[in-house]
Specification:
Blueprint lengths: L1 H21 L67 E22 L4 E9 L1 E8 L9 E8 L4 E8 L5 E7 L8 E6 L3 E21 L21
Antiparallel strand pairs: 1-8, 2-7, 2-8, 3-4, 5-6, 5-8
Length: about 230
């Protein structure tokens, strides 16, 4: 009997030891790789992203470049000569001085090679008056002033019209609603059949009408209108 009890007691102790060993938790691992709780955690590497550049070569074909020729001299630039200006010759189709006293003069011309250049020098009637100022003190003499001005009745106008329709092409003049510039230049730049009308009063007008001369044509010299007297203001 005593042997059976001793065997049961030993068996119970063995079972108790096995059960107690099964309930012990294993040591917690350190994330840093150390079995102890005092280890340092290593940083986690950040993954890098590689960007690939895509080159579109659908329209280009890769080729081998030409070898550089360092010994080849650069071409010397040529100095082109300055073009010689070609003088333009003009043929005079009308040159006259007219006196106007409320009258009109008209001329017809077929313009084949424009332009038609009309230069006009206007000499208006100038009126003069004298202004006398009486001195208010006996120590000074009386003053007399001379004043000259364009006559209010002096004016001039030139109108270029289409001969077939009467439509106005260009118009200019002196006095009235125009300026008092005594030198006028009018140009007709289109070919056609024209009527040139000159109208005025109390003025003399030197009129010079010219066109481009044909190549090779000998042009007689014509005294140009170089200067016009300035009208007093």
């Amino acid at each position: 009997m005593g042997g059976i009890r001793l065997s049961c007691l030993v068996g119970f102790i063995l079972i108790a030891c096995i059960l107690s060993s099964a309930c012990i938790a294993p040591p917690r691992e350190n994330p840093g790789g150390s079995a102890t709780g005092t280890g340092t955690r290593a940083p986690t590497p950040t993954p890098t992203t590689t960007t690939t550049t895509v080159i579109d070569t659908n329209f280009l074909t890769p080729v081998t470049p030409f070898p550089s020729e360092s010994g080849t001299p650069l071409p010397t630039p040529r100095n082109l000569p300055n073009p010689t200006p070609v003088p333009v010759s003009y043929l005079t189709v009308y040159n006259n001085e007219l006196a106007f006293k409320y009258n009109t003069v008209a001329y017809s011309y077929d313009l084949a090679d424009p332009p038609l250049i009309i230069n006009i020098c206007i000499k208006p009637l100038i009126t003069t008056r004298y202004i006398w100022y009486q001195s208010r003190s006996g120590s000074k003499e009386d003053v007399t002033l001379k004043q000259s001005a364009v006559s209010p009745t002096a004016w001039f106008e030139v109108v270029v019209r289409d001969r077939n329709t009467g439509a106005e092409v260009v118009r200019d003049g002196f006095g009235k609603t125009y300026s008092i510039d005594t030198k006028k230049t009018i140009q007709v730049r289109s070919s056609g059949q024209y009527v040139v009308e000159f109208t005025g009063s109390d003025v003399n007008a030197s009129i010079l009408m010219q066109i481009s001369a044909p190549p090779g044509m000998i042009i007689p010299e014509t005294a140009p209108i170089t200067s016009c007297p300035t009208a007093p203001v």
